[in-house]
Design brief:
It is built from 8 helices and 7 strands, in the order E-H-E-E-H-E-H-E-H-E-H-H-E-H-H. With about 270 residues, it is α/β, with parallel strands linked by helices. It has one domain: Rossmann fold (3-Layer(aba) Sandwich), CATH 3.40.50. A 7-stranded parallel sheet has the order 3-2-1-4-5-6-7, sandwiched between helices. The protein starts with 5 loop residues before the first strand and ends with a helix.
Length: about 270
């Protein structure tokens, strides 16, 4: 990563993205942070760029504006994402597609818009923020997990495709982080669900995971910056409290044992 460099952070108006964009500015980088709406707080140190990841024209316009100002984008951090909660049986296809539009296709659109300039420059860094849920399927979050599983496959393929052009690609896999993504996830259908009792037990566990047990966005942002600054960092990078342990367990334990542990943890 160039120091200082020009960095684009999607989903920078809250949570991890906000903490990450601000800290990168403090490290003397030129940072552009995107979102559908401006940050709700006035402590944003970065330059805000309105961008809707579900709209290719919005992405192209935003990136063209950055390139006019800075001539290059040295680092792309695909951080934006939305949550999902509900049984597979009862979640509409439209609701599932909405998750993929942002969490998967939003990343694809942004990469496609930034890559030509990086490829011509012969260098660059792409950081895709996936999730521990990109390796571990969580009950009642099937479509969120599926979107993150898709990001894992996309990023691994991209790694090979752009390596000959001097572009580095890394995955970041956060565990539970105390952001607003869970608060903003629609849970309105729980009371009418045929899975109501199991869903309520799941929600009790999830509220704790995303609340008192969660890591802070500032801590996770610091870990991501360390990964960016370490040229020989691994391709996959668990971050946030407990992520390294649970992802190692998923890799080492047989399915029958890990699935039993997951079901037990979420009380389903």
């Amino acid at each position: 990563m160039k120091n200082p460099g020009v960095i684009l952070v999607t989903g920078a108006t809250r949570g991890i993205g906000f903490a990450l964009a601000n800290e990168l500015v403090r490290k003397a980088h030129t940072v552009f942070g995107t979102g559908r709406k401006p940050p709700a707080v006035d402590q944003a140190l970065f330059s805000y760029i309105p961008m809707d990841l579900n709209d290719e024209r919005s992405i192209r316009k935003g990136i063209e504006g950055i390139l006019k100002k800075s001539l290059s984008i040295d680092v792309l951090i695909n951080n934006a994402g939305i949550g999902q909660c509900g049984p597979v049986e009862e979640t509409s296809i439209d609701a599932a597609k909405k998750v993929f539009e942002t969490n998967y296709w939003g990343i694809v659109r942004t990469i496609q818009a930034v890559l030509p300039q990086m490829r011509k420059a012969g260098n660059g860094l792409i950081v895709n923020v996936s999730s521990a849920a990109g390796k571990i399927a969580i009950p009642f979050q099937a479509h969120y997990c599926a979107s993150k599983f898709a990001v894992e496959g996309l990023t691994e393929a991209l790694y090979h495709e752009v390596k000959p052009y001097g572009i580095r690609v890394v995955l970041v896999e956060p565990g539970d982080v105390g952001t607003s993504i869970w608060e903003q996830t629609d849970k309105s259908a729980v009371e009418k669900s045929v899975y109501r009792e199991a869903l309520q037990r799941f929600l009790g566990v999830k509220e704790k995971e995303m609340g008192t047990a969660a890591d802070s966005p500032a801590n996770v942002a610091a870990q991501i910056i360390s990964i960016m600054e370490t040229r020989k960092s691994p391709f996959r990078n668990p971050v946030a409290r407990g992520a390294t342990f649970v992802l190692a367990a998923r890799k080492l334990l047989p399915d029958r044992i890990f699935l039993k542990l997951t079901g037990g943890n979420y009380k389903v």
